[in-house]
């Protein structure tokens, strides 16, 4: 099938690679503009652009599609289908209606749950035991189109967002490649979403990543997993120091006050309901370390308040 691909980050790049490998004709690629990255602010191409250029595919990087400035170019490319994976731009009606088979989107949740930009992270933050991928026929709403295909994926009890995202990416690329020929064959049955069951998955930020030792152990554990690898969950000690936590485990307590150190090997701290073992941390202004080393640096002992 002749496909116009639209996407930007790593997950989109993996999907684009899969479509090439499946033998589809990629007539063009739309992606976001190159951005300065790192301390030296080196202008860096999106992952999708790099993949497209390796295959000699034309790449387009407009600021927006909503003003109609790309309509003529998209019609000239004459795609049978537009495939969208984490593009980052809203598609207007003129683009949605341009291809013979319309536009489909890979969304990494079981729609209508977790519409928005961070569905994988919110599934972990909320302690869900499963998520999935959905292939959706796009309309003018935000992740509101009919679902063509979905596949469930179990979430491990200790799995981080980053680990889950790697697995979801692989499943998503496979399901997408299975859906494209099925669309052409007319064997997919669009299923309208139950909009009343929709939930949102907004972008994460560093402020949202904060937790408190007065939260429950389950909440803290999920927050640490869900905010990993970015922006990383953090809390403030009784001494006013910010500490990021990159790995923890739920533990038991005997009803001690939140923040009470129960053990230092491993560093175990009481919270509102149970306790957490702080296995790996990044203290403010310091390098990553295990929790026991962190406790030793503060000369903590059982009964102290962290």
Architecture overview:
- The chain has 306 residues and is of the alpha/beta class.
- It is elongated.
- The model has no long low-confidence stretch (mean pLDDT 97).
- It contains eight helices and 15 strands.
- The chain has helices at 10-21, 47-54, 71-77, 93-96, 119-125, 161-185, 217-226, 291-297, and strands at 2-7, 25-30, 35-37, 42-44, 59-60, 81-85, 103-107, 130-137, 147-154, 233-236, 242-251, 261-264, 267-270, 275-283, 289-290.
- Helix content is 26%, strand content 26%.
- Helix 1 packs parallel to helix 2, helix 1 packs parallel to helix 6 and helix 5 (119-125) runs antiparallel to helix 7.
- A hairpin with a 4-residue loop joins strand 3 (35-37) and strand 4.
- A seven-stranded mixed beta sheet has the order 5-2-1-6-7-8-9.
List its traits:
15 strands, 306 residues, 6-stranded antiparallel beta sheet, single chain, alpha/beta
Order of helices and strands: EHEEEHEHEHEHEEHHEEEEEEH
- By DSSP (H or I, 4+ residues per run), the number of helices equals 8
Rg, Cα atoms, Å: 23 Å
Tally of DSSP β-strands: 15
Distance between the termini: 60 Å
Residues in helices, as a percent range: 25-40%
Shape: elongated
Strand content: 25-35%
Structural class call reads alpha/beta
Low-pLDDT segments: none
The overall average pLDDT, rounded, is: 97
**Major sheet characteristics:** 7 strands, mixed
Q: Which strand order do you get reading across the main beta sheet? A: 5-2-1-6-7-8-9
């Amino acid at each position: 099938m002749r496909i116009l691909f639209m996407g930007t980050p790593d997950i989109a790049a993996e999907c684009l690679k899969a479509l090439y490998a499946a033998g589809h004709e990629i007539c063009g690629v739309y992606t976001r503009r190159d951005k300065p990255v790192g301390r030296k602010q080196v202008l860096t191409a999106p992952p999708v652009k790099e993949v497209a250029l390796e295959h000699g595919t034309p790449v387009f990087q407009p600021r927006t599609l909503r003003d109609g400035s790309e309509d003529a170019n998209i019609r000239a490319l004459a795609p049978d289908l537009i495939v969208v994976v984490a593009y980052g731009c809203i598609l207007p009606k003129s683009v949605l209606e341009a291809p013979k088979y319309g536009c489909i989107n890979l969304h990494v949740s079981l729609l209508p749950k977790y519409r928005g930009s961070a569905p994988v992270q919110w599934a972990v933050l909320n302690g869900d035991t499963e998520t999935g991928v959905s292939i959706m026929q796009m309309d003018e709403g935000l992740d509101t189109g009919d679902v063509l295909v979905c596949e469930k994926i179990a979430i491990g009890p200790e799995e981080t967002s980053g680990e889950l995202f790697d697995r979801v990416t692989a499943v998503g690329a496979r399901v997408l490649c299975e859906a494209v020929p099925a669309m052409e064959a007319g064997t997919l049955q669009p299923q309208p979403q139950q909009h009343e069951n929709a939930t949102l998955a907004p972008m994460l930020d560093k402020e949202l990543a904060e937790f408190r030792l007065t939260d429950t152990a389950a909440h803290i554990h999920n927050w640490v997993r869900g905010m990993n690898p970015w922006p990383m969950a953090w809390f403030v000690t009784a001494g006013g120091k910010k500490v990021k936590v990159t790995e923890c485990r739920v533990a038991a307590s005997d009803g001690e006050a939140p923040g009470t150190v129960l053990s230092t090997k491993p560093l175990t701290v009481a919270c509102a309901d149970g306790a957490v073992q702080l296995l790996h941390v990044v203290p403010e202004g310091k390098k990553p370390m295990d929790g026991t080393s962190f406790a030793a640096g503060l000369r903590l002992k059982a009964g102290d308040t962290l």
